Amino acid sequence: MLRNLSALYNSGRLSGTGYLSILPVDQGIEHTGGSSFAPNPDYFDPENIIKLAIEGGCNGVGTTFGGLSLNSRKYAHRIPCIVKINHNELMTFPNKHDQIMFGSVREAWNLGVAAIGATIYFGSAESNRQIIEVSHAFEETHQLGMVTILWCYTRNNAFKKEDIDYHTAADLTGQANHLGVTLKADLIKQKLPDTNRGFEVLKFEKTHPLMYDKLSSDHPIDLCRYQVVNNYMGKIGLINSGGASGENDFHDALRTAIINKRAGGIGLICGRKAFQRPMKEGVKLLNFIQDVYHQEEIDLA
């Protein structure tokens, strides 16, 4: 497992820096193939996702069982691969917040991947089952020598109140991270926080005034730092997600990377911003993010 973790940290343009740049693509499962790849239909072919990650200098590429079943024999020795073992398939109507297993850890190991990725929707009605499934999967993953990466997302319609979405509150996401490291995740993926005091407003969970007054503030870097604090004081690396593609992708990606680095995070996992554009532009954006982590002037706040 340590060798595979080392392979992630010592690949791509950020090799040896202690930071990670990962390209994640669920190959049209959680956002539908059409909505994901209509802007650039070349990426309906999962091989092009891996090519983008290699050309973009990423430490690793995360994708699906189907995509890696086609391509791992050709690429597993060229870039560390990560297989996502559960998904929210979104074809159930009405949609629900549930991550279900799409394959086994043993199958992931047979594909030659360096790591498995899994998601838990903390706060959802199905979260208890997801916690049990993922904890068992992570135990087997470590036994087989692979790395574990956990998407620690919050999901509950009640987490929205008075037009404020607390799914990305520092206190809620921080606690999700804290549960994730308890499940023995080697790396945590989390959305960048943009608000706080969700527990107070929603009136659940236990809090302490120092959570908000000393360990954090309203500053974006402090909000992200609270996520890092919940990752065993940063001993388990925090990777923030790049978010959806929009009109200001380069600006937004730069901002997220700077906040993550200055807060004590270890990198960015950016997908749609990179692959929903021509490959040359996608490579440029990925390199743009990586350059933040190469800049010594951008340091801990």
Structure, briefly:
Helices cover 42% and strands 16% of the residues. By secondary structure, it is α/β, with parallel strands linked by helices.
Would you kindly provide a written description of the structure presented here, covering whatever features stand out?
The chain has 301 residues and is an alpha/beta fold. It has one domain (2-294): Aldolase class I (TIM Barrel). It is built from 13 helices and twelve strands. The strands form three sheets. It has an eight-stranded parallel β-barrel with strand order 1-2-3-6-7-10-11-12, surrounded by seven helices. Helix 10 (220-230) packs across helix 11 (249-263) and helix 11 (249-263) packs parallel to helix 13 (279-294). The two termini are 32 Å apart.
Q: H/E order of the elements?
A: HEHHEHEEEHEHEEEHEHHHEHEHH
Q: Could you name the CATH topology?
A: TIM Barrel
Question: Can you identify the CATH superfamily?
Answer: Aldolase class I
Number of strands: 12
Number of helices: 13
CATH architecture: Alpha-Beta Barrel
Give the fraction of residues assigned to helices.
40-55%
Rg from C-alpha positions?
18 Å
Topology (elements, then pairings):
Layout: H1 2-9, E1 20-24, H2 33-37, H3 46-55, E2 60-63, H4 65-75, E3 81-84, E4 86-87, E5 100-101, H5 105-110, E6 115-122, H6 127-143, E7 147-154, E8 160-161, E9 164-165, H7 170-182, E10 187-190, H8 198-202, H9 209-213, H10 220-230, E11 237-241, H11 249-263, E12 267-269, H12 272-275, H13 279-294
Parallel strand pairs: 1-2, 1-12, 2-3, 3-6, 6-7, 7-10, 10-11, 11-12
Antiparallel strand pairs: 4-5, 8-9
Helix pairs in contact: 7-10, 10-11, 11-13
